[in-house]
Amino acid sequence: MSPVLELKNLQTHFETRSGTVRAVDGVSYHVNQGETLGVVGESGCGKSVTSLSILRLIPNPPGKIVGGSVLFEGEDLTQVPENRIRAIRGKEISMIFQEPMTSLNPMMTVGNQISEPLIRHLGLTKKDALDRAREMLDLVHIPDSKSWLSGYPHQMSGGMRQRVMIAMALACDPKVLIADEPTTALDVTIQGQILMLIKELQEKLGTAVVMITHDLGVVAEVADRVVVMYAGRKVEEADIHTLFERPRHPYTVGLMTAIPRLDQIAEADGDPERLTEIPGTVPLLSELQPGCAFKDRCAFATERCGQQAPALEEKSKGHWAACWHEAPFQ
Amino acid sequence: MTVSPQSTIPLLQVNDLKTHFPIRKGVFSRIGGYVRAVDGVSLTINQGETLGLVGESGSGKSTFGKSVMRLVEPTAGEVKIDGVDITKSSRSEMFRHRRKVQMVFQDPYSSLNPRIPVGRIVAEAIRIHGIASGQEADDMVIDIFRRVGLQPSQTRNYANEFSGGQRQRIGIARALALSPKLIIADEPVSALDVSVQAQVINLFSDLQRDLGLSYLFIAHDLAVVAQISHRIAVMYLGGIVEVAERQELFKNPRHPYTKALVAAIPTPNPKIKPSADRALKGDIPSPSNPPAGCRFHTRCPLAEPRCKQQVPELKTSSSGHSVACHLA
């Protein structure tokens, strides 16, 4: 199967007063139709900048895609003219963001917001678009959808707003949905509803989903395949089961052992085991030293790690990692 | 785990605490109703114990924490620290009580003054409370910095020179400066990166072991709460729905809300797929107009007619497991 969306060696840099920041430093990944790709990483790892680069939503200046390509059904989105990318945004590839309140227009009714892409991209009449908007609200399980068409975002709860965002994003039946921390701002019982909704709609519509998150629990639940990012680079990629069973990068292992595990705590009889810390903090991209970006926090770092950054290597079929050392790291 | 003998009084005993905020309406600011943020909460914390308080946004868990410190004035009820009810204390008495109870806040970016060196932020508390002054105070600050994993030289730096995790260490250092017995930590790790969270959680555990501190650990993340707490209280819409020892709560959750909360947490294990019925329907209702009867009945999969009328009492079984549900 050929991928719907494929990033090849994408590089997005920002020019700042303290020099060039390589926010995305040669990232490649792809997602197939009907598949969910999880992109995991902490703040500053470049996961969001990567996704914004796909739709050329990086403000320039200071940001710029300086290299690589973004292939959507074979077409390089970094090269197409502005009107072409506008035709793709929201129609072929759409995005949902973490904070639904700031991504919705507070002055516009819910119905009009969902209708806008339908009128623009599909050329529907206002009336048809509103009918379709209502169907979309039903699809995302908003009760009393007819009266919500004339409601405003501030009248809704956080969970409902995120549903509206999803309704908008899926209104034009896109081939790719990029969800950037879609549940981080929501309560956990609402998070469950939203994740299930995305999964349900994906099965119904066959959308490819790129799910960007810092939460390994969310990834384990929804993703088929995972890309782990650190300091602007992909450090590991594997299918979801392989990643959790045989992680090949010390950072991935660190992330897995640093989080409290409710399932294990609930099963254990004594006090929970002490969490394994990852020492130090996420490095500033403007102050990256040569060598592996994780070396200062890595218990396995050797001299070689300080001299030369490890390249991504296929350790087993479909399982890539950028580390000089061999697993296991536990 | 530390359990005080029955004869001693608990370090913190909260009885039927209520904190209501008036909603003012119209040109004359008439009181049009109340937000019942905390509506009849009773809890105890023993010496050396961590009580986890978990709930979603709008549950009133943060208001409860602030009410215990009297950073917001409770409307009714008692807050006893070492047996003394502080809700009736005068300002000067309150000043003395505050030495016993300190707070650590969620956002380490907005809770530290950016214009004074962090060492002075910590020293300020020591001086104001007359614990020490001059060189002695500075030495104490250095001790505290070492204890929370910071370098003595870092006392001269400003808050903006630190990462989020380090700032939270400074927040903890400030709370420790008065050698409190109880620390109220309100979402202390939720603003931190996953890789840094573990450092701060472990620091809380170490400090408890070394100093015999008690914690009221308020968080929305049940896994974090489970990691650090001896006992856990689950709060929903201003009231406690369940309290139990950690193991008991997870092995035998009895309130439908607790069950839903446990089931809602995504497990970092791809082999465990969530059950399809785990998600609760609907949103948490507004605390200004809570549902009659059991407050959870609008979202409860098991609700019966009586749940809409009668408020279930929090009943404690012989094993010390408390639950407020007609059906449990």
Write structural notes for this entry.
By secondary structure, chain A is of the alpha/beta class. Chain A has 2 domains: 5-92 and 174-321, Rossmann fold (3-Layer(aba) Sandwich); 100-173, no CATH class. In chain A, 35% of the residues lie in helices and 23% in strands. Chain A has helices at 47-54, 82-88, 100-103, 110-122, 126-139, 145-148, 158-170, 188-205, 216-222, 240-245, 250-258, 262-267, 303-307; strands spanning 5-16, 19-31, 36-40, 63-72, 75-76, 93-96, 176-180, 208-213, 225-230, 233-239, 313-316, 319-321. In chain A, the strands form 2 sheets. An 8-stranded mixed beta sheet of chain A has the order 6-7-8-3-9-10-12-11, sandwiched between helices. In chain A, a hairpin with a 2-residue loop joins strand 1 and strand 2 (19-31). In chain A, helix 4 (110-122) crosses helix 5 (126-139) and helix 7 packs parallel to helix 8. Chain A is globular, with a radius of gyration of 21 Å. The mean pLDDT of chain A is 90. By secondary structure, chain B is of the alpha/beta class. Chain B has a single domain, classed as Rossmann fold, CATH 3.40.50.300. Helices cover 30% and strands 23% of the residues of chain B. Chain B has 9 helices and 12 strands. In chain B, strand 4 and strand 5 form a beta hairpin. In chain B, helix 3 packs across helix 4. The longest helix of chain B is centred in the middle third of the chain and has 18 residues, at 194-211. The interface between A and B is large, with 50 and 49 residues.
